[in-house]
Amino acid sequence: MLRIILSLVMAMALAQNGVRSDWQFFAPPLVLLVTLYWVLFAPPVYGLGFAFLIGLLLDLMRGAPAGQYALAFCVTAYLAQLAEPRVRHFVLFHQALLVGLLTLVFQLIVVAVGLVLEGGSLRLAEFHSVWGAILLWPPLVLLLRRLHDRVW
User: Fold this and answer.
1) CB of 21 within 8 A of CB of 6?
2) Cβ–Cβ contacts within 10 Å for residue 114, how many?
3) How far, in Å, are 7, 82, 115, 118, 125 from residue 137 at the CA level?
4) Residues 136 and 98 sit within 8 Å (Cβ to Cβ)
5) For the CA atoms of the chain, what is the radius of gyration?
6) End-to-end alpha-carbon separation of the chain, Å?
């Protein structure tokens, strides 16, 4: 349990600092990727309730409308759970593509809720984080797998 909390605290700290440049749209949703790892590779313990709580925590951290990230995390975690029995047998490249698709679903929900509640306009640059998620997934899995396999 300590390693999961540690990995999520690190991801939230990195996500809170973020990227402050023109490259900010390519920054992957790191908290989502870490949550997806634990949902995919430790499914009996971490599921939709876990994803919902992490989403609520992210709502509080970012000052987003209550439930925006919680809804996006739940839907994404549910889709990940549907694919979970097959994902374990995928090579990292195919896992990265699936995670990219899940990140796209996540971004669509976050943007749609934001547009409905706050108004504004849609920018396609908001979906560039999918590419960052695809590129970050393999090293993240290798790092978290070492943490997951380590006996504390």
Assistant:
1) no
2) 16
3) 14, 19, 28, 31, 20
4) no
5) 15
6) 10
> Nearest 5°: CA angle at 67, between 62 and 70?
85
The rounded distance, in Å, linking the Cα atoms of 51 and 143 is: 20
Extract the tokens encoding 146. Answer: 């070492």
Give the Cα separation of 132 and 91 in Å (integer): 18
Give CA–CA dist 117/5, Å, rounded. Answer: 31
Token pair listed for 98: 């699936």
pLDDT tens sequence across 16-75 = 776 566 666 778 889 999 999 999 988 788 889 999 999 999 999 888 888 899 999 999
Q: How many domains does the chain have?
A: 1
Q: How confident is residue 114, by pLDDT bands cut at 50, 70 and 90?
A: confident
Domain of residue 101, residue span: 2-149
Asked if 92 and 127 count as a contact pair (C-beta separation under 8 A), the reply is no
Residue 138 pLDDT > 50: yes
pTM, two decimal places: 0.89
